[in-house]
């Protein structure tokens, strides 16, 4: 069965070409701000109807993998995450590019995207039933605790000004309450506007926050363009980094890959959160946390490894339980069912060959991805040489197309530009943007599960103490808070010492 | 400082101009994208040579018909998210309508709140040219009105067709709970009130089911479990003991024995599990109406609705591929109702929805 599945993909030129093209298109969708991996999969789904099940799933996997990985290109070069999952890549990728290390940042991001995908694939092949059984242990209490834990990471994203971080997160949570509640359909904060019933979408918020703000900032600095000139002459040597530099990142890569898979298997949490989580963990365990955000490869590695290994993670509950974790896997579930494959505990018995075919497709797609992105590197970097006054209007139009594509509504384009304008003001006030998107994603998850947990406690309050996983998460939350305060303290102290030394020298 | 301010104002004006531009340009861009999609779809059809032959032999007939509809791709807005039974049945129908009519049917999912998001948005839609069709299930068209989520129901749209006989929803117990039948559930939960948890979608059909079972003597704690896939996850994860889940979601777990079917909630026994009794047979006052429907914004040409209805009926009656494929989802014979039958069916469904809503309302008042 293994060979049969492997050969169904690897020995069929049509399938290989399909994966090749899909990965290519996926990278393009991922790299263009406004177009995402989910959109790539959704748009091309109808084209896969006419294909056989193996070819259809291979194509969709290629789009998914290419799409998630392609986001790193614009995240590093333009400071605009091409896909929401690569938001964290901007934290250190952009400062690296500004220092003239764009090639190194891209090199690290591409290689660790690849390694992350492969790690996710290995987990999917080897221990998916085990991981799936962990995933279903997550009920309302566990999700509730996990979302509190993830929200607490905001402290890590904001540096020393926690108040501003909390303001940003709260804005995100508030944006998440607009529209019909996912819990009981109560309509909230729509001010009678039917267009708002559906609430805001993660994509429109993310484009508004990052892409549109970037456009405004560029427009604002048009009179002193010299200041923002990024060193565009980048020479690519080998992979962009040395063997020693690579070795330094191996531990970071492994930690991030585990976090990626761990978050990926939990339906509804998603790749973006996994990237933020692993960034925070890697930063905390680092010997130089104060350098994060100033352009260290560790940050890029953490983010890109995690968001790609989350792909394998997200496939686990989809295939072995029939439960989709995010927008993309929901579409994949539809695709599977259309080809009469019911995901679930019996998928190996009933469609074993397809499963091995799928694994082969993931492997091939990640290999294509790493080659395409490295070969394309010189061209990607050329983007930096394009004058901003040509580049930004094009991005604005692409963002509009992307916003429209979310749900075929012109209204979403208005939302994107409104959010962009608001985010521009936030930036002027030095309020960080990442907590907004995190609050937006996690707020509704917290609310729904909090209210469910309340119902579970109807019989007795003792229920609260019967969930060890949830209790562990709450304890870890406290630990993270304390650790972060300590590391912030450490940074403050280090800077104070530096200032003192400077004063002494003077 | 001043130049900074003027730059800021300038950028705002620029932004506004861009927004306008984007607003204007989005429509042509969309049609261009659609056009390219049709081309691609056309390219991919050679694999389905039979479909194309059908199209060719039929083309002259269509031209002599009263209208030249359809001339361009049809947008099917599915009011539910991708991956669910409503999405699948709608997509499947779309796939065959596409082959039959020779134009793309572009399916877009606009899910949320049991379909209310899409239905509200398209209620007063001006897209009445017949190229915007909505795909929903019967519950979305009737329950939302009955529970007050929407102020309108199925009759705010032009009816195209009611179709599909889904395998329906059943009440399942987890293997770990040791519950084997509906009587067993009622007995055990009456002994230990609020101990047995029943996962439902708050305010949805499954909520009505749970209330009816409680009314019949059970004392389950009713908890929110989200959509079908998530209710399944909470059942097999051991978070709840009982849940109402669509057959399609639970299918694999019935085979493995992880979940035990107790009750079919439809008016008839489930064709997939004929040994499981219905609610009426078990003395539980419950009637859920199931199925899917295509509707169009009010004001859409009745001739267009009729034409689509006829095409759909033809597919259900004559197309063996459709019959076979839909059987794999629904475990039932293919069915598309005629225009008048569809309207009668929807009116009946509305009545039963209002009855169910009364049950929910009196529960909420408690």
- Sketch the major β-sheet of chain A: 2 strands, antiparallel
Query: What kind of sheet is the major sheet of chain B?
Result: 5 strands, mixed
Average the pLDDT over all residues of chain B and give the rounded result.
80
Total count of strands of chain B = 10
Helix content of chain B: 40-55%
Q: Work out the strand percent of chain A.
A: under 5%
Helical content band of chain A? over 70%
Q: What count of helical segments of chain A does DSSP give?
A: 19
Rounded to an integer in angstroms, the radius of gyration calculated over CA atoms of chain B is 24 Å
> What is the radius of gyration of chain A computed over CA atoms, rounded to a whole number of angstroms?
22 Å
- Fraction of residues in β-strands of chain B: 5-15%
Tell me the series of helices and strands of chain B, N- to C-terminal. HHEHEHEHEEHEHEHEHEEHHH
Assembly form of the protein: heterodimer
Give the strand order, joined by hyphens, for the main sheet of chain B: 2-1-3-10-4
How many strand segments of chain A? 2
What's the end-to-end separation of chain A, in Å? 75 Å
Strand order of the largest sheet of chain A: 1-2
Largest inter-chain contact set: A-B, 71 and 81 residues
Order of helices and strands of chain A: HHHHHHHHHEEHHHHHHHHHH
Low-confidence parts of chain A lasting 5 or more residues at pLDDT below 50? none
Q: Low-confidence parts of chain B lasting 5 or more residues at pLDDT below 50?
A: 1-66
């Amino acid at each position: 069965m293994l060979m049969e599945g492997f050969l169904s993909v690897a020995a069929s030129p049509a399938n290989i070409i399909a994966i090749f093209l899909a990965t290519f298109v996926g990278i393009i969708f991922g790299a263009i701000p406004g177009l995402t991996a989910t959109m790539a999969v959704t748009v091309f789904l109808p084209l896969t109807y006419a294909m056989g099940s193996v070819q259809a799933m291979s194509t969709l996997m290629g789009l998914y993998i290419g799409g998630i990985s392609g986001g790193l290109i614009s995240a590093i070069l333009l400071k605009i995450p091409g896909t929401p999952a690569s938001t964290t890549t901007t934290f250190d990728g952009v400062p690296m590019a500004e220092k003239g290390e764009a090639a190194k940042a891209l090199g690290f991001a591409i290689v660790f995207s690849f390694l992350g995908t492969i790690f996710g694939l290995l987990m999917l092949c080897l221990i998916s039933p085990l991981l799936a059984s962990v995933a279903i242990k997550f009920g309302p209490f566990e999700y509730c605790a996990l979302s509190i834990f993830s929200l607490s990471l905001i402290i890590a994203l904001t540096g020393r000004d926690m108040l501003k971080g909390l303001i940003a997160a709260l804005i995100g949570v508030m944006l998440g309450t607009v529209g019909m509640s996912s819990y009981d359909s109560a309509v909230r904060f729509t001010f009678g506007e039917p267009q708002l019933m559906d609430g805001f979408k993660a994509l429109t918020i993310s484009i508004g926050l990052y892409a549109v703000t970037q456009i405004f900032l560029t427009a604002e600095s048009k009179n002193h363009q010299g200041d923002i000139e990024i060193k565009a002459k980048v020479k690519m040597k080998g992979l962009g980094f040395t063997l020693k530099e690579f070795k330094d990142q191996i531990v970071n890569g492994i930690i991030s890959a585990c976090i990626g898979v761990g978050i990926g298997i939990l339906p509804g949490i998603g790749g973006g959160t996994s990237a933020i989580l692993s960034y925070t963990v890697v930063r905390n365990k680092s010997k130089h946390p104060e350098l994060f955000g100033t352009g260290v490869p560790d940050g890029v590695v953490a983010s890109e490894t995690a968001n790609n290994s989350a792909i394998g993670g997200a496939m686990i509950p989809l295939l072995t339980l029939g439960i989709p974790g995010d927008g993309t896997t929901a579409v994949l579930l539809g695709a599977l069912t259309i080809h009469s494959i019911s995901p679930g505990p019996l998928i190996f018995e009933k469609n074993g060959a397809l499963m091995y075919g799928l694994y082969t497709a993931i492997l091939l797609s990640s290999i294509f991805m790493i080659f395409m992105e490295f070969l394309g590197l010189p061209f990607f970097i050329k983007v930096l040489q394009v004058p901003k006054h040509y580049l930004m209007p094009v991005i604005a139009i692409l963002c509009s197309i992307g916003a429209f594509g979310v749900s075929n509504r012109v209204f979403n384009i208005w939302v994107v530009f409104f959010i962009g304008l608001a985010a521009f003001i936030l930036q002027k006030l030095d309020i960080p943007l990442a907590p907004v998107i995190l609050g937006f994603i996690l707020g509704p998850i917290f609310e729904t599960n909090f209210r469910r947990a309340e119902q579970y406690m109807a019989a007795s309050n003792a229920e609260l103490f019967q969930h060890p996983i949830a209790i562990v998460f709450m304890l870890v939350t406290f630990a993270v808070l304390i650790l972060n305060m300590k590391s912030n303290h450490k940074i403050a102290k280090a800077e104070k010492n530096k200032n003192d030394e400077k004063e002494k020298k003077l | 400082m001043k130049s900074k301010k003027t730059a800021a104002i300038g950028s705002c004006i620029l932004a506004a101009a861009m927004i306008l531009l984007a607003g204007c340009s989005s429509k042509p861009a969309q049609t261009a994208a659609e056009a390219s999609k049709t081309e691609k779809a056309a390219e991919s059809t050679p694999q389905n040579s039979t479909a194309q032959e059908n199209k060719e032999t039929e083309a002259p007939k269509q031209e002599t018909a009263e209208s030249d509809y359809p001339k361009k791709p049809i947008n099917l807005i599915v009011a539910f998210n991708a991956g669910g039974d409503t999405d699948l049945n709608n997509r499947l129908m779309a796939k065959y309508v596409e082959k039959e009519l020779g134009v793309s049917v572009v399916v877009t999912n606009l899910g949320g709140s049991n379909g209310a998001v899409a239905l509200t948005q398209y209620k007063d839609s001006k897209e009445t040219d017949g190229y915007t069709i909505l795909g929903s299930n019967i519950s979305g068209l009737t329950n939302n009105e009955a529970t007050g989520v929407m102020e309108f129901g199925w009759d705010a749209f032009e009816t195209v067709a009611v179709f599909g006989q889904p395998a329906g929803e059943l009440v399942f117990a987890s293997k770990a709970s040791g519950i084997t039948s509906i009587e067993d559930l009622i007995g055990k939960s009456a002994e230990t009130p609020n101990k047995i948890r029943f996962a439902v979608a708050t305010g949805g059909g499954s909520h009505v089911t749970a209330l009816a079972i409680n009314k019949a003597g059970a004392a389950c704690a009713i908890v929110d479990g989200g959509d079908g896939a998530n209710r399944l996850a909470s059942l097999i994860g051991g978070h709840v003991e009982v849940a109402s889940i669509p057959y399609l979601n639970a299918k694999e777990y019935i085979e493995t024995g992880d979940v035990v079917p107790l009750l079919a909630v439809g008016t008839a026994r489930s064709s997939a599990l004929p040994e499981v009794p219905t609610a009426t047979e078990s003395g539980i006052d419950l009637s859920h109406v199931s199925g899917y429907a295509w509707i169009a914004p009010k004001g859409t040409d009745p001739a267009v609705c009729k034409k689509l209805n006829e095409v759909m009926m033809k597919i259900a009656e004559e197309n063996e591929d459709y019959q076979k494929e839909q059987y794999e989802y629904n475990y039932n014979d293919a069915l598309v109702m005629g225009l008048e039958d569809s309207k009668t069916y929807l009116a009946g469904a509305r009545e039963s929805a209002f009855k169910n809503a009364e049950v929910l309302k009196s529960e909420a008042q408690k």
